[in-house]
Amino acid sequence: MIGGSKLAFLALATVLAACAFRPTPLAGYEGLAFAIESFYADHAVEENGTCRSPEMRAITDVRVLEETEDRLVLRLRYYFQDDAYGVYDDPEIPIQRLRCRGFRTRDFVIDRRDGLRVVGMSGPTREDRNFGRPSGG
User: How many domains is the chain built from?
Assistant: First the structure.
């Protein structure tokens, strides 16, 4: 049995260790992952517009494509999931159940002139009316 003071010490050590944990900065920039995930959540669609509210759940690979004084361009591979449009509780439709989740790759453009501000990304967005498909004429 652990004494009261030892138990209190272990609890305190656990809390301090949890508070000290910080994820590794994306491409060496603190706070950039949150900025990119927020921009993606505000603008992205997946699956040709079928998944209209995707969220990045994990960034699995990062490559710096360009890094200048004013601009940073990153290529990210990520896992997305859209709980609003892509998850079904109906076990009779197992294929659609997984429709709005998967791995994708996009490029993100970050303006470095006034902090780190995401200003664009590749791939279809809600602003696109045709979601990347060729226009009909």
Answer: 1
